[in-house]
Design goal:
Helices cover 55% and strands 3% of the residues. The protein has five helices and two strands; from the N terminus they run αααββαα. Strand 1 and strand 2 form a beta hairpin. A two-stranded antiparallel ribbon has the order 1-2.
Length: 118
């Protein structure tokens, strides 16, 4: 049996070659395999505005780890019986909430800075 230690994360020297979470590097077939959904499902999600993969110069879809996390969220919501229109609205509200939290954190950090003594 495996001990409960933090050995799942690769060492820093191995992580340096991994793409950043927002870096679109995965082709649609790889993204489908990694996310556990079909290629047509990814296209359907894009058609409904649920995901927006980056495009290469030649127009090929490229997915990032952030896109794959969003697909996992979509899949979880669909598994709860929510239709795609409902999922789109939920994602819009979650995105707006995240933006508001980020703005609040930035304002809090700004107000916590000492005043300029000029």
């Amino acid at each position: 049996m495996r001990e409960n230690r933090e050995i799942d994360a690769p060492p820093a020297e191995e992580r340096s070659h991994l793409p950043l979470s927002g870096q679109a590097v995965y082709a649609i077939s790889v993204a489908a395999e990694l996310s556990g959904v079909g290629v047509q499902t990814l296209r359907l999600y894009e058609q409904h505005g649920l995901i927006t993969p980056a495009r290469s110069g030649g127009g090929t879809r490229r997915y990032s780890a952030d896109d794959l996390a969003r697909v996992a969220r979509i899949t979880a919501l669909a598994g709860q019986g929510i239709n795609l229109v409902g999922i789109r609205r939920i994602l819009e509200l979650e995105d707006a909430n995240t933006a508001l939290r980020d703005a609040t954190a930035a304002l809090t950090a700004e107000s916590d800075r000492p005043a300029d003594p000029r």
